[in-house]
Structures are given as C-alpha cells and as structure tokens.
Write a structure and sequence with these properties.
93 residues, alpha+beta, two-stranded antiparallel sheet
C-alpha cells in the first residue's frame, strides 16, 4: 500500500512539473506582439459604488433617470439606491 501511494505521489509530482510551454523551433523566431496604446473601453459604465469595470456577468441592475446602471453585487446596488445622486455624480465626471 505504501508503494502504491509513493508511486502515485511521484507520478503526480512529475505530471505537475511538466512544462506546458510550446516547443520553440530554432529556425522560426517568435512573432512579436504589436504594442498598442489603445485601450478597450466598454460603452457601459462601471459599478458606480466600487468602480469595478462593467462585466457581462453582472446580474444586478437598476434604471435611474433613464440610465441603466449595472452592479457587481447586491451590496453595491443597495448602497447606490440609498444615495443615487452621489454615485451618479461620480460617473458623469
């Protein structure tokens, strides 16, 4: 039993230690990634309370003055609803 556990441990250690990088060929250099200064800007506002960028996984939202506002959590939504003018002023700067 000890040998089985030892063998499994060694195999697991070897499997975890494998390098998952693709093999580089000596003839072909790695292509350069073009440097971009542009940032991708979402057309949606960030969470007005914690300023987290908009994410499509946000499930919480509300409509305030004809604007749909998305929240990362129910907590941020509840905080916003207590003082919406304060947080909307931050978004519209």
């Amino acid at each position: 039993m000890k040998q089985l556990i030892l063998t499994c441990s060694v195999l697991l250690a070897l499997a975890c230690n494998q390098n998952s990088k693709p093999a580089e060929t000596k003839d072909a250099p790695m292509p350069e990634v073009p440097a971009t200064t542009e940032t991708v800007v979402s057309d949606k506002w960030p969470d007005p309370v914690c300023q987290m960028p908009y994410d499509t996984s946000y499930k919480e939202w509300t409509v305030y003055q004809n604007d749909t506002i998305h929240f990362c959590s129910i907590t941020c939504k509840e905080v916003f609803l207590k003082k919406p003018d304060k947080y909307m002023a931050k978004l519209k700067k």
